[in-house]
């Protein structure tokens, strides 16, 4: 029997149940992993609330996108992975079909990457969702170049910090946007070349000052909602405004004539990259290199044991964290 987290109804953190279930077995093109650490994501909060782009296929439902551990078994037609290999799981599947919260989990082989021996399970569980989200948009699609300014809102989140570090590692100019000036020093220490705290300063003025009036080549927007009209005013001509989340919970308009200029605004999810093997392979290679070198090592705010998965989700929803929340599995 293996401890597995499922939820039997939609709702708050308290709906998550830790249950003893029979050990799963991998099918064709699947891998069984003995989990050592699990990275938590806002997407999983929205999934259990029924507010995610995917809805549970049925209840009870599994949950989870990220994990790291050791291969326990492989199914038929799996190549390049063997029992005992240290690995990590990347988000390349739907939570309607698979989940990573548990002691033993089955995932598609296409979602498994080798974890170098020098990379801990906690690091391996925390890096992929956030860094692939940024890499897919800014590098794979946008072609980020040295010197490019990138505005990142919700900058203290795991994705925000991973984006700052990625941009910095490639010679870009990460500009962090936060609602509270209390996080200014932390964000600067984590790699932001400039920080705009909207509780005390004007967003447009702050970004224009940081870019010498040129505006940003990219806006990486996790918030969406009516604020896109203001963000449109800081995109440089020919730039791209990526909308990859909706933390505002509000409808997102296309900016009107008062802010329209020569730029693109598009929705984006990391699945554009993770579900296409030819695009995922170079992304995982580049990120692995960055993690090993330390340039892309994730920032961990707090860890919780699996027995406290409800508390871990409560903390994740509090938005108090700076960086990733990770659950450890003993």
TrEMBL record:
Gene3D superfamilies: Medium-chain alcohol dehydrogenases, catalytic domain, NAD(P)-binding Rossmann-like Domain. It comes from the Bacteria. Residues 11-327 form the Enoyl reductase (ER) domain. Pfam families: ADH_N, ADH_zinc_N_2. Keywords: NADP, Oxidoreductase. InterPro entries: ADH-like_N, ER, GroES-like_sf, NAD(P)-bd_dom_sf. This is Zinc-dependent alcohol dehydrogenase family protein. It comes from Actinacidiphila acididurans.
């Amino acid at each position: 029997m293996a401890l597995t987290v499922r939820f039997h109804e939609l709702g708050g953190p308290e709906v998550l149940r830790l249950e003893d279930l029979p050990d799963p077995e991998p099918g064709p093109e699947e891998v069984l992993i003995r989990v050592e650490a699990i990275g938590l994501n806002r997407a999983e909060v929205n999934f259990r609330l029924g507010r995610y782009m995917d809805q549970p296929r049925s209840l009870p439902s599994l949950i989870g996108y990220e994990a790291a551990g050791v291969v326990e078994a492989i199914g038929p037609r799996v190549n390049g992975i063997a029992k005992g290999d240290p690995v990590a799981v990347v988000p390349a599947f739907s939570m309607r079909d698979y989940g990573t919260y548990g002691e033993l989990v089955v995932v598609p082989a296409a979602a498994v990457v080798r974890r170098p021996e020098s990379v801990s399970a906690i690091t391996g569980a925390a890096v992929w969702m956030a860094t692939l989200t940024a890499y897919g948009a800014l590098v794979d699609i946008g072609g980020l170049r040295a010197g490019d300014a990138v505005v990142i809102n919700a900058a203290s989140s795991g994705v925000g910090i991973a984006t700052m570090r990625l941009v910095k590692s490639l010679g870009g100019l990460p500009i962090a946007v936060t609602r509270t000036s209390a996080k200014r020093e932390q964000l600067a220490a984590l790699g932001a070349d400039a920080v705009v705290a909207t509780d005390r300063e004007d967003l447009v003025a702050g970004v224009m000052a940081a870019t010498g009036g040129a505006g940003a080549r990219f806006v990486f927007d996790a918030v969406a909602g009516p604020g896109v009209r203001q963000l449109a005013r800081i995109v440089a001509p020919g730039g791209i405004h990526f909308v990859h989340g909706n933390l505002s919970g509000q409808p997102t308009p296309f900016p009107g004539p008062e802010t329209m200029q020569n730029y693109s605004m598009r929705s984006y999810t990391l699945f554009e990259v993770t579900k296409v093997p030819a695009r995922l392979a170079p992304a995982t290679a580049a990120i692995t290199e960055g993690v090993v070198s330390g340039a892309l090592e994730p920032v961990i705010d707090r860890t919780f044991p699996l027995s406290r998965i409800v508390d871990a989700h409560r903390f994740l929803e509090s938005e108090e964290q700076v960086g990733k929340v990770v659950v450890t599995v003993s």
